[in-house]
Amino acid sequence: MTTDQNLAPLRSTHSAPVVFGAGAAIGVLGGMIGLGGAEFRLPLLISLFGFAALSAVILNKAMSLVVVLVALPARLAAVSVSEVAAHWPVAVNLLAGSLAGAWAGASWAVRMRGSTLYKVLAGLMVLMAVALLVTHTTALGTLTLPLWAEVPSGVVAGFGIGVVAAIMGVAGGELLIPTIVLLFGVDIKTAGSLSLLVSLPTMLVAFARYSRDGSFAVLRANRRFTLVMAAGSIAGAMLGGLLLGVFPDLVLIPVLAVILLVSSAKLARHD
């Protein structure tokens, strides 16, 4: 077990309504922009609920997995299975990198010193803020690479996304969707469904790696906490989906990016 893990309370003592409410608030934020909100949940797990970095990452990963499992059927209902299946080479291409990246990222996370992991998470939150701004405030084009360059580019991109997703405990849709659009020219709606198909096995690989380490005990000790917050996240995401379009992206996205940047600054100062 890492020293970072020993710094956290093993079991949360917060009441179920508080945990559910926090998950719902994060879900609403994510739902309003079509995401699960895991990047906003991570700093909350650390700042509000007092988990150390690695504990928060593992709990966040568990909740992200639950949210993706619930979201996948709904997403496939919105985009036909045949339409998604037509792009199976894209998913395979990205998975060739993301599965290895998830294993590597989880391996690095469990070996990092606590202070280092906080700084790495802070840097990745800045990356997520930039990805959020680029994806939602600009018109994404296509790079139109030749096949000989497209395939290795997909593997490399997938590896990087797998690393980030494993270290942050997120599904990685914030990075997968623009990558699918830019590299493979898929429309953004179908890209959202493909990102879930790539995220699910990628998260399972990261889980398998985390389960080999003693730090996984935090998940067993906080099973109820995890399920309650995941339920709140799902309920909030549904509500946020109903609010989709109520707030203009040019207003909402910069606000959410600022939240990520403020969270990043706080984590960077965390010992």
Summarize the structure in words.
This protein has 271 residues and is mostly helical. It has one domain (15-268). The chain is 78% helix and 0% strand. It has helices at 3-6, 16-31, 38-47, 53-78, 81-85, 88-111, 114-137, 147-168, 173-184, 188-210, 217-221, 223-242, 249-268. The protein is globular, with a radius of gyration of 17 Å.
Query: How many strand elements?
Result: 0
List SSEs in N-to-C order.
HHHHHHHHHHHHH
Q: Biggest sheet, in brief?
A: none
- Arithmetic mean pLDDT: 86
Give start-end ranges of low-pLDDT stretches: 1-8
Instruction: Please bin the fraction of helical residues.
Output: over 70%
| Helix count, DSSP H or I runs of 4 or more residues | 13
- In total, the number of domains comes to 1
Question: Helix and strand layout, with pairings?
Answer:
Layout: H1 3-6, H2 16-31, H3 38-47, H4 53-78, H5 81-85, H6 88-111, H7 114-137, H8 147-168, H9 173-184, H10 188-210, H11 217-221, H12 223-242, H13 249-268
Helix pairs in contact: 2-3, 2-12, 3-4, 4-8, 4-10, 4-12, 6-8, 6-10, 7-9, 7-13, 8-9, 9-10
